[in-house]
Amino acid sequence: MAVTIRGRTLSLPILQGGMGIGVSLDRLAGAVAAKGGMGTISTAACGFQEPDFYRNTQEANLRALARQVKRAKELARGAGMVAINAMVATTQYADSVRTALKAGVDAVVCGAGLPRDLPAIAAEVPESDAALAPVVSGGRSASVISRLWDRHFQRIPDFVVLEGPLAGGHLGFTKEEALQAQEGSPRPLSELLREVLEALAPFREKYQRDIPVFVAGGVKDGAEMARYMREGAAGAQFATRFIATQECDASQGYKEALLRARPEDITIVQSPVGMPGRALHSPLIRRVEAGLQPSPKRCIDCLVPCNPKTTPYCISGALIAAVQGDWENGLFFCGSNAGEITQLSTVSQQMDQIMEEWRAAQ
Q1: How far is CA 94 from CA 89, 106, 208, 235, in A?
Q2: Model-wide pTM > 0.85
């Protein structure tokens, strides 16, 4: 059951997905790690609570990130692993990785684009021996990134997160594929897992070591995690279920919005990142769909592909509004099973429940 990643051990095969802006920071990540899993801090605009955030955005983000990594490690008390999730599509992607590595983070997970140069960025911080992992959507992306790292850096991923089309937030699928999944016809995660394991096999053989694969996106419980582990996964990543915990860094308003949600309240949105995403059908999304959302009034230059003159809304502003509990103006990212979460709990209770379900399915 325990998983070893670059010399570190997870006593529980559970990853907590990175959720931004501000949903998974030091409190949540530290609590998950303390229980023996991998807790993840989202680097996206993580300094939004700093007093100089809008005047000095980039420095505020990096200052807050370093503090959050160190605090999460303190909360972990030497157990589990503390990771960051750094989106390749953000303007501070490389700086965020460097900052987290210098602060002592155990792992760097990168999605929203292929982290082609992640090993080179990590090499700039030689005192760090953090694990490096891409988020992939299938065998093709797993093969591409492994070939690139092998050819240019003589390194392969230390683990891989496979996010299927039922995941929350940004998705590595086309809008059509995301809509098909939302309508009840997702590409099976088992099929994607088989593709990824096959794509990684040559690199496992060449480097004579394992590349653990954690499945994510619609993994409902420990019983499903057990099934995927029988199919070759090392464990699973959960995210939305950790929002409704006391330790989650989001406001009570965000948690209550999630607890009120029904399955029919979940929809597919088009993000300024250029990817589809899964979120609650909030008033903001309704205004965007109707063409009634006002243009952004300010820009913090957070995303490489975003043009503030043409974007339908500011994603950072919408995510900050959400984490603060502003239902009218927030973008509330969530996974496909959000409608099944009905009560607040703790990280310990959630992880115990997952493992009880896992044991029952053996």
Answers
A1: 10, 16, 29, 28
A2: yes
List C-alpha distances in Å: 317 to 257, 265, 266, 324.
18, 21, 20, 11
Say if residues 220 and 336 touch (Cβ distance below 8 Å): no
Segment 162-178 mean pLDDT: 75
Residues 164, 141: Cα–Cα separation, whole Å: 13
Q: Report the C-alpha dihedral over residues 279, 280, 282, 286, rounded to 10 degrees.
A: 60
Q: In the chain, what is the greatest distance between 2 CA atoms, to the nearest angstrom? A: 56
**Distance (Å, whole) CA 177 – CA 336:** 14
Assess contact for 213 and 233: CB atoms under 8 A: yes
Cα separation, 291 vs 161, in Å, equals 35
Q: What is the mean pLDDT of the chain?
A: 91
Residue type at position 202:
P
Q: Residue 203 has what pLDDT?
A: 98
Supply the range of the domain harboring residue 225: 3-250+343-360
* Partners of residue 265 on adjacent β-strands: none
Alpha carbons 171 and 270: distance in angstroms, whole number: 10
My answer on whether 246 and 262 are in the same domain is: no
300 and 317 part of one domain: yes
Q: What is the CATH number of the domain that holds 197?
A: 3.20.20.70
**Nearest CA to 13 among 216, 225, 162?**
225
> What CA–CA distance (Å, rounded) separates 150 from 207?
10
More confidently predicted of 181 and 315: 315
Report the relative pairing of strands 169-170 and 276-280 from DSSP bridges.
antiparallel
How far apart are alpha carbons 79 and 43 in whole angstroms? 22
